[in-house]
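Much of our argument rests on the idea that a fold can be written as discrete symbols. Part of our work consisted of pairing the sequence of a single chain with a tokenised description of its backbone. The amino acid sequence and the backbone structure tokens for this protein are reproduced below.
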Amino acid sequence: MQYFLTLAALAPAALAQTYYGCYTEIPARALTGSSLIDYDNMTIADCETHCTGFDLWGLEYGGECYCGDALAQGSFPAFSTDCTMPCPGDATATEVCGGPNRLSLYGTAETAPAIVPYPHDPAVTATQYEGCWTEVSGARALAGASGFSLTDMTVGGCGGYCRDSGFTWFGLEYSAECYCGAGLDANSTLALEADCAMACSGEPTEVCGGSDRLSVYQWV
């Protein structure tokens, strides 16, 4: 089952391009072609011009531009609210240039690039609800990757984010929080189902945990 996160539209650059959304960065770089750093004057158009000849380009941390023809393994769609840093060279103050370890990704094709998520052993194909569980004091019940979105959080979005991050367990908390892990912390306990009653910020018909409570799922 494939999930897609809701992606926010940004101001278009001057040249022909398609905005694919906010994507995760990886330690070795999601785009491994040319790069340009300018924390004072970067714009979307500047990055696109610099990356002429490449199929993809992404802006990160306000002033970083990276080019490439394909995404490296481990880069995949993130929550749109992860990309909120303004482009310093944009006089209109409407352009967004990624975020910390997040790329505002553009390209020449109309369709988004293929992603290569981290592998799972065994392969996972569906989700299974495991109940409402308590958060852990001073730590996290699910201590892997995490995401946050006041506007886009859904069960499917969190599940896809955690699966592509290499985790098979995921939990949603306080309407807008997503946590991933290899399993629940031993100090997390099963709570009353009524404790998980907060609507997901991106889909009000779905439940995304509660205060210090996680709606927990597992990929199986």
